[in-house]
Amino acid sequence: MASNQQHIKLICDLSLIHSNAKWRYPGSWENYPKYGDPALYLDIARMLERGKFDGAFFADVAGTPMVNGSMKDTVELGVAWPRHDPIPMVSAMSVVTERLGFVTTMSMTYNHPFHAARMMASLDHVTRGRVAFNAVVSGFPQEGQNYGYDTIPDHEWRYDRAAEFQQVLTKLFASIEPDAMLWDQETGIVADASKVHRIDHEGEHFKVMGPLPVAPSPQGRPMQVMAGQSDSGMRLAATYADLQFAGANGHAGKGKHRARLDEMCRSVGRDPDDVGIVWAGSFDVVSGPAEEDEIRRKLREQYSDRLLHVFLSQWWGLDGYEIDPDAYVHDVIAEVRGAGIAPNWGYLDMAMTATTPTTSIRDYAREWLVYGAEYIGTPEQIADYMEEAFHASGANGGFMIAPRSGVPAGIERFVDEVIPVLQRRGLFRTEYSGATLRENFKGR
Known about the structure:
Layout: E1 9-13, H1 39-50, E2 55-58, H2 72-77, H3 87-95, E3 101-107, H4 113-126, E4 131-136, H5 141-146, H6 155-173, E5 201-202, E6 207-208, E7 223-226, H7 231-240, E8 243-246, H8 250-267, E9 276-285, H9 289-302, H10 305-316, H11 329-339, H12 345-354, H13 361-371, E10 375-377, H14 379-392, E11 397-403, H15 409-424, H16 437-442
Parallel strand pairs: 1-2, 1-11, 2-3, 3-4, 4-7, 7-8, 8-9, 9-10, 9-11
Antiparallel strand pairs: 5-6
Helix pairs in contact: 1-3, 4-6, 6-7, 7-8, 10-13, 14-15
């Protein structure tokens, strides 16, 4: 696919900067209260806006995974735990910024589309048009149990529900016409009732009368972000997303994924140019090999084998202690699929694309958790990699990057050292092009 987009888009993933031992890394969280207080996040928001980032991203999983039959390891080691609802933090960060966007998560598996539409439209007002809805299909066992399910609902059931969820969202966001609001001081008429519509949706999963009781939001409809590696996930993103985030190994893997999404877009009657991709990965800015080695050494000191097992359990939806660390990733995943176990398929698919047939579980876990930073190097090296990956995958989207070490210092270093290189090359904006997230993201 050839796009006429000129600039790389950048989103900073702040989902787990407080967990997985990142808070222990020397220099991280210094002089800030630990997770929950907004002080650090407000400073990061200001940094990202200074760097002209498109947005900050918050994933969300509302469960505390059990490992080896207990939540003890998850809680003691803080592996993706605790996880506050990100929406209040987004609201706070929006107050200290003017152009930075925010991508926040709600589950289509366990939430109701009316609640999600009302929340996202309201948040779009609070942020003045700078929010995107990361609409996820959930696959973590303990999250399901928090919502009353004994086991994870069937994969196809979850995607069928998500497709209908999206249909209801579309109807609700269209239920108030853009010019419906009058606020006529003389007559006292608030809105033109002929431009406010019931949707009267009745389907397999949802029954919703409508309309959405929120004034039309600044973006009309908040931008929508989705992941999805399976055929069902790719089809859902191709049909409804403005932006997909994905993981793929190397430039060839990214190009292959982009081509697959393009084909899926065309199959549902959509222009592939309308769906960008941001490639997920972590980053570290270093002065050279010596500093990179030192960061690796410090990271190794934070991550025990016990933490690696728990981390694998979290993201795969399996008990990491029952997996042979010397087994090959591809063999384990094939066995899981053959047994019909229902873990988080998306992360298993990502693991398949990120490894070779002879990559062991131990090596994969360590590389992904401890060393895994696809965007690591000097500012020029990171810019080189991003430029190559951007063009190899169709020049439509960019990168969703998470700081691997040194929060907030690592983020500030990216803003101060990498952004200027990208700007000098004409790959990244020097100013925001609009007031809303959609305007900035679509701006050339």
